[in-house]
Amino acid sequence: MLLSDRVVIITGGAKGIGKGIALQFAREGCSVVIADISAREAENTVSEISEAGSKAIFIPCDVTSNNQVQEMVRQAIAKFKKIDILVNNAGGLFQSRWTIEDVTEEQWDKVMNLNLKSQFLVCKSVVPHMKEMKYGRIINLSSMGAIAPPTSVIHYHSAKAGVLGLTCNLAVELAPFNICVNTIMPGPIRTDFWDPLTSELTDEDAFFADVARKEVPLQRIGTPQDIAGAALYLASDLSSYVTGATINVSGGLPLHLSTRD
Question: Which of 93, 251, 94 has its CA nearest to residue 185?
Fold first, then answer.
């Protein structure tokens, strides 16, 4: 198995993309630490992994809190003795008005803290342990909106652009310690991230089919499993000579699309 005897921390691993990565890594022999605030969903994911014969634990953690992040990492080390892989997946939005005139300073700070500062905090706590082992794989989740926004979501897309800078700087800093740092840039992936836009629709399938037809060269919406495949590559020794890279998992975006009927 590609991740035999490895240990991973996945922030936001309770559901959506994070859960998809957790399940994929567990199938490849990895012990999984899920750091999340969604206790019920996290426990369900841990149970699913455990029932399949792999090891997983849930550690409640608000990744915007440095104290909680440090305690989460301490508990993970106490349980599994090491951390080989970090997947910075936690992120999200809080409101549906996103332009420069609509977003308040408080909203800007909240979204930046969740989507960018959190990755800095978790890396800061995990990196010393990876340095001791002279081994590590860090995978940061960004968004296609960081470089090709279909519409302005100014705080979220700015934070996700910051993730690209964080990745490049860490890749240079940590390369001498055999720690590879890379970014996955998802396109439209069907998860509960879309709930604010789809909660009142009568036909969600039709909505996603329309988005795929109009926006995605491969003509389908992505799944958490699509992201998990790329994450597995970056977490394993298949990518041992890859650092500072960004992998678009986006169905072909941002390739130019001709106008479709």
Answer: 251
**What's the CA gap between 159 and 91, in Å, rounded?**
10
Q: Are 11 and 21 in contact (CB under 8 A)?
A: no
Q: Is the Cβ–Cβ distance between 120 and 166 less than 8 Å?
A: yes
Confidence of residue 151 (pLDDT cuts 50, 70, 90): confident
Q: Known catalytic residue: 156?
A: yes
Check pLDDT > 90 for residue 48: yes
Q: SS3 of 250, please?
A: coil
For residue 261, is pLDDT > 60? no
* Structure token digits, residue 255: 């390739």
By residue range, what is the domain housing residue 33?
7-194+223-249
**Number of domains the chain contains:** 1
Compute the average pLDDT of residues 188-215: 79
CA dihedral 31, 2, 228, 154 (to 10 degrees): 80
C-alpha 38/C-alpha 42 separation (Å) is 6
**Which one from 135, 156, 233, 241 is the annotated catalytic residue?**
156
Q: What are phi and psi of 42, to 5 degrees?
A: -65, -45
Distance CA(174)–CA(135), nearest Å, equals 10
Helices and strands (H and E) in the chain: how many: 9, 7
Residue 18 lies in a domain: yes
CATH code of the domain in which 37 resides: 3.40.50.720
User: What are the helix (H) ranges across 60-178?
Assistant: 66-80, 105-112, 118-133, 154-174
